[in-house]
Amino acid sequence: MAGLELLSDQGYRLDGRKATELRKVQARMGVFAQADGSAYIEQGNTKALAVVYGPHEMRGSRNRTLHDRAVINCQYSMATFSTAERKRRPHGDRKSTEMSLHLKQTFEAAVMTQLYPRSQIDIYVKVLQADGGNYSVCVNAATLAIIDAGIPMRDYVCACTVGFVDETPLADLCFAEESGSSLALALLPRGGQIALLQMDAQLHQDHLEALMDAAMTACKGVSKVLDEVVRRHLQEVSVLTGE
Amino acid sequence: MVLQPLGLWKVLGSRGRKVRVVREHYLREHVPCHSSLCQAGCDNDGKLLSEDVTHYVFPDVGVVVDYQEVLEFRELRGVVFTQTACSAVQHSKGRRQYNRLRNLLKDPRHDCVLFANEFQEYAYCSRAKGESQDIWHSRSVYSAAVWYHDHLVGVKPVVMITEDEAAVAMYSSLHSGIYIVSMQEYLLNFWPELQAAQDLYCSVSQALQEKESEGTEREYLEHLPSEVLEAGIKSGRYIQGTLNVNKHRAQNEAFVRLEGSSNKNTDLNSDVLLSGGKSRNRAVQGDMVVVELLQKSEWRGRATALSEGQGEDKLPESTQSQPMPTGRVVGILQRNWRDYVVTFPPKEETQSRSSRRILATPWDQRIPKIRISTQQAEALQDHRVVVRIDSWESTSLYPNGHSVRVLGRAGELETEVQTILIENGVTVLPFSEAQLREMPVNTPEKPWRADEAARRDLRESHLVFSVDPRGCEDVDDTLSVRTLPGGARLELGVHIADVTHFVREGSLTDLEARSRATTYYLADRRYDMLPAVLSADLCSLLGGVDRYAMSVLWELDAHTLVVHKVWYGRTLIRSSYQLYYEQAQALLNGEPVQVPELLQLEPEQRDAKLAQLTGALELLTHVARHLRAQRDLGGALELEGVEVRAQLDEDKNITALVPRQPLEVHETVAECMIHANHWVARKIQESFPQQSLLRHHPPPRQEYFCQLVDCAKAMGFTINTRSNKDLADSLDQAVDPKDPLVNRMLRVMATQAMSNALYVSTGSIPKDQCYHYGLALDRYTHFTSPIRRYADIVVHRLLTAAISLDRGSDPGQTLASNKDLGVTAEHINRKNQAAQRTQKLSTELFQCLYFKDKDPLTDPCCVADAVVYSIRTNGFLVFIPQYGLKGAVYVKNREGQVVSAGPDGTCEWQSGSVHRYPDRISTVCSTGTITFNLFQHITVRISVQPSRCHSDSLLLEVLSCQPHQRPDPVDLPGPQPQGRTHLVQEVVRLAEEASKQAQEKAAQGSRPSEEERDFYQTKWPNLYSLLEEVRELALMDPQACGGGPRLSGGAGCTSTA
Q1: B970 at the A interface (CB within 8 A)?
Q2: What is this structure's pTM?
């Protein structure tokens, strides 16, 4: 009868986290051999797979070729079984197209595209299970995949979704928490540059700063986890290839 | 990160389809236990369980859900609510009960905490496959109890109470430190002295049992499910609103006041009528309901005839007004049940069929009868009892409830006063020891000394004085005024008691003050908001002692009186003179006055000091006149004007008639306070545009002015209601030289048309809508009476924060957010209304007690002059200036007889007919015709109409349609214009004599005199506060209007006889 209480008086969220705590992040790189780079990430119950091809020659229409840098081509899709009710179209609907565009913009800001003029980099992301923060999880997965592909980037791109409940910013929203106002931020954590910031809910401007701060902190938290994942992966790979 | 995620699958329904929802559940090792015995170094903040209890108790889910109110006893200490239980309450009992539980957990006066067992790694147990929810709940609570016991290394035994016998059997022998008992055993064994809790437990459990054995016959339509309601409201098919039952026709007529936001249907701007009990469909007064409109052909009108409130009479169609939107309730969004006072019926009325179930009649006529199951029915006959409603099934004609506690025998003074308090949700327990321990000490042995640090010292530099009613003890405002060196600037100062220095935010005293929100003035007693050591001593700005103050100092241009500079801050002052109004006025008039503060001085010195004081007063008056004139230009309403003050005084206490011809000095002080309030409002709003507390008085709705305009037209005046300025001007012109009462009545009507002035948080209203209509100020707040209003304390804190913000330092504690402040404002508004209603009811109670002792046929007190001010179908409403009473007079009685003219102008009942016109009503019968015009003076007899279940009421009967000739016209000053000052003095003298007489009379009177004397308050509240209250009353809504102002605590009954 009563609505869900997103943040209890004791400061717990629905799933037992405190306001600033992230969900558990587990990731693996190099999950596919045939792609140039790939990664799988689980952030709580949101699971995503990212695959990177390239840089390679322009395919398809050549008139999109840029002479000073590489073109980034993104495709976002959600598995039909990723949501509680089965999806009809895995990709190509409005939402996915918009999401693809956001991803493209994010990575254009982070990948050093000027090193590969007249070429193309493809990033495919698929959400296998959706439980809030789809965009952020996809960005994180794609970052790992790009690193796996060995494409130079200015920095990790780390993304996180934050929300605002009872005057408190909540980090890394799950699906139930996403219904209110939520803000997605993709950050290059070392320099603190923002690759993408997106919010389509109403929020009082006084609260924006607090929300941004929370998002930055959360992104930096994510970056630490990703960094660990990369280091571990490199260790494993070097053991295999070394002696 | 210490989290351990754990997948948890749940199946939830959404949009009718079953959907599988996956949710994570993180467990952690460190969950605070909130016990002061914790050895493990838990991160405990907030309130802690005390260590001086014999055990900790874990109520099971079923116990919390069903017996929450038993657990609310403050005497039950060491209660640990598990998160499992709390979420069960949230899911099964709804938001209201859950909020009650949340408040209980937050309230530091209750020794109980919440333990988030579901997030504790070792206390959590996941639900096994196929396990029923109840068993899982018990297992969770048990495992939480075990963890808690082990966490505290077994220093406290833990008791788990459950109503589930299987759980008792299963767990009781598993662990040596944990005892599993049932609720009843627990209360009997651990709290044998707490009889009230046991009684409550019995009555609740009985009610629960009764509920199970309910019949199946359907009396009402089922309510629609909430999704259907939500969808219906969104689509505009249904309308959402609050149910408001017509007090005089509680059985038949109720209205639904629409919520502004949900009303998409713009052509529907009136309330929706619900006619009859079936269409009300189990909704109770105050519930948030959803209604469906009926077909236009089924719409009905509201009854306009006066009803005498006994039984239901089937009204003929002719007495109904135009058909209005009519509907029926299809669902209830939110129950708004509170505690009700009921009276048990005498024995003969008790049904024999099921003797354990009694139909008790609530004191509030708007509440349906409540079915109580009790075995004490005989003992409770004719007692007033507090009950709560548990449920109202569609199979039952009446709601089921259970009794909570017994107040006493109906008709006794103490019972009746308690009834009034409970019916208005006012709880005033004496201040607890812990609260009093927070108070500073000021005794002759250990005098309190002011600390001079960090305050501006005004003791030497400023001449500070206070003007209050004679004998006032809680002085919360003082004034100062001086010409600054150079002569081009004036400095005006208002110094208010610095209550927030003593009442820290979040302290127990603060919480208590917040929950009281205001000082309650009843006819015979008063309940202070703050303990006496503060209100009458340390916070009171008494003469000749050092006191802390919050000051506002304005620098004004000496000629144009334009404000150049404002200074706000904490100060240390010493009031030089504690004047009273008459004394101050005499000083201004240049009359010789004794000022006690100057008696010891040499004559020359005395004259010099006196001249200085008089000079200051004159300067102050000059400034105040200017301020007033400026507000008048803006359109300030004189509703609080002379006459209304006396008018609103419903008590017979003539002391309250003093301001009838107020001295100019009243106005001067009031004006300075308004000025201070206004500037403080500006300051806090500029500093905290989203989170300051203002007082908002919205402009009234034009349609409410109809009655005023019509009545004025009948008298040949035109009233322009377009703006507050127009209204003020046209009211000033509407004066009948022959009868000053006419203007007075018109002002009363204007007052009734006003909207309520309310506290608001600025974040919740647009910036340009803070306008105060009545005072004609763009911003207004309450700052000047922190001793008796909590809103002022909030404003003081805001101002302090604003000052430290200006200095560049951190405001200290974080300020309440807009949302929190909104909640506070809402709470204060509600409490203020409750206080006003309480006061009105207690005044009426005393009126009835007063007239009860008199024989209406012989006692001259019972005959009085009355003025007709509104015409109804079968009678009219009158106002009795002598007693400040308002009431209905019938010209047609139950037998269909009408009032007719007797031979010598007296009236008697005869058969005949009644004719109603817009401005008069006349009766026709064999002996002739009588016409009652608006504003006509008539003579009425007042008698008491006793009522067993409800409060007694006064009955008015027409004696003659001539003005009443008083036997001794000197007793009360008549309406004839007299010399102004003479009249004032006359009234004051009479008032004092009368109040003395009344006190003596009451002391020797027929009522228990000793009790009576105990309730007397020798302290009078300050007159400015009285005026301020009257101003607020003047801005009340029509129903609430007519309540008396805060009366001086004096006699409950005063007569001039």
Answers
A1: no
A2: 0.68
